[in-house]
Amino acid sequence: MLLPSRKVFYCILLVLMSLVSYHAFKTYNFTNIISFDYKSSVTLKKVIENVAGASKSDMKYILQWTSPTNVPFVYMGQGQEGFIDRKCPYTNCFVTADRSFLSDHSKFDIIVFAGPEAVGLYSLPTNRSPHQKYVFATIESSHNYPVCSNRFDGYFNWTWTYNLDSEVQWGYFAIRNSNGDKVGPKKQMHWMKLEDMDPVSEEFKNGLKTKTKAAAWFVSNCYTASHREALVKELKSEMNKYGMDLDVYGKCGDLKCPNQNVKDCDKLLKDTYYYYLSFENSSSEDYVTEKLLHALENDVVPIVYGGANYTRFMPDGIYLNAKELDVKTLVSKMNEGITNADKYAEYFRWKNHYSYHRQFESSDTDPYCLFCTHLNNEEMVNKTTIYKDFRKWWDPPERC
User: Fold this and answer.
1) pTM (predicted TM-score)
2) Which residues pair with 177 in a beta bridge?
3) 268 band by pLDDT with thresholds 50, 70 and 90
4) CB neighbours of 300 closer than 8 A, spacing ≥ 6?
5) What is the largest CA-CA distance in the chain?
6) CB 198: neighbour CB atoms within 10 A?
């Protein structure tokens, strides 16, 4: 038989458990749980996880207006699943493509439009609430998907793109300093000057001695808006004068990586080549993709070609810019690096002070996590922002 004091303790515990359960169900709205389970065939386990997440904060409802099966929405997940699986700092964001999920699309906190589909879309929301944010989202280049009209001027509140002006950045990598703090990319970078950076170690220098060939390019898109293929033809011709080869791997060349394995490709690049062509398929401001990482991650000097201001992405002196140098000067500089081991090693001084990381490596840079984090930023959500001249902001000059 329980003592009176223990009876009181268990009674209090029972009341507290009841209150917690009531609070969780009240916050999430039991009707929505049943509705979600019915429409999406979500398991009971997922429903319980969603309720638990919802009790921590108010749910932020996100409606995908364009197809959920296309990039970038296809990796976003449905419900809270994508945020929970990624272990995001905030998981109280709920994603759906069902426009009637909340009975009316004007009740959603956010409506997102995938850029490539949105530019040609004419079935747009008819009712709009003052609290809603309309978001233009894409990882694709504006050069390939321009708007070419004023129809979206004054329409979007936020953008979620690679552009460094976007409210939520969807870049391909993050830059950290030697303390592990994220420092870029951003519009105004405060890089150390190359001459102030620590020199590379003798061990690192010796590792570079395995390189025997001038340059490589991994490519599958042979005809591009940037016309990079024409530049490559000129580059090859000039390199031949120095006895240098440009090896092209993939659909647009004659070579293939060993076992066609990414890791084997990277090892080949690191061990064999001095330079790598980080040529973008189109020229748009801030459009710098994983092509740059192929070089930086594998101790190869990148030769860049694109519409970006590359000082936002790398310190001066660690790369060659094919858009700023004529072909003769570019190849001459390549030859200087190949014939002078000390000069070539200077390109890698940055490695003592900075590091490059893919966005998905950490929840604080993951673009999907960042989206939910921004939805929980009250100051940002409450601030009225409108892209009044969206066409001018998005379209490259003279594109349309």
Assistant:
1) 0.83
2) 354
3) very high
4) 216, 269, 270, 273, 274, 275, 276, 294
5) 98
6) 12
Mean pLDDT rounded to a whole number for the chain: 88
331/136 Cα distance (integer angstroms): 41
What the chain holds in terms of domains, given with CATH numbers, is: 4-171+366-394 (no CATH), 193-352 (3.40.50.11660)
User: Nearest to residue 334, comparing CAs of 226, 215, 219, 248?
Assistant: 215
Residue 343 three-state SS: helix
37-66 confidence digits (pLDDT tens): 323 333 333 433 444 444 444 999 999 999
* One-letter amino acid for residue 54 of the chain: A
Question: Quick one: tokens of 86?
Answer: 């990624």
The amino acid at residue 39 is: K
User: What are the angstrom distances between the C-alpha of 295 and each of 96, 166, 225, 278, 356?
Assistant: 38, 26, 22, 8, 11
DSSP 129-167: -TT-EEEEE-SS-TTTS---SSTTTTT-SEEEESSTTSS
Task: Please list the residues that pair with 95 across neighbouring strands.
Answer: 62, 79
Query: What amino acid occupies position 291?
Result: K
Q: Which long-range contacts (CB under 8 A, 24 or more apart) does 39-42 make?
A: 39/98, 39/101, 40/78, 40/79, 40/96, 42/79
Measured in whole angstroms, the distance separating CA 18 from the mean position of its chain's CA atoms is 43
Residue 255 β-bridge partners: 249
Nearest 5 degrees, angle CA 186-CA 190-CA 196?
A: 140
Percent of the chain scoring above 90 in pLDDT: 80
Q: Which of 101, 114, 34, 113 lies closest to 61 in space, CA to CA?
A: 101
DSSP 305: E
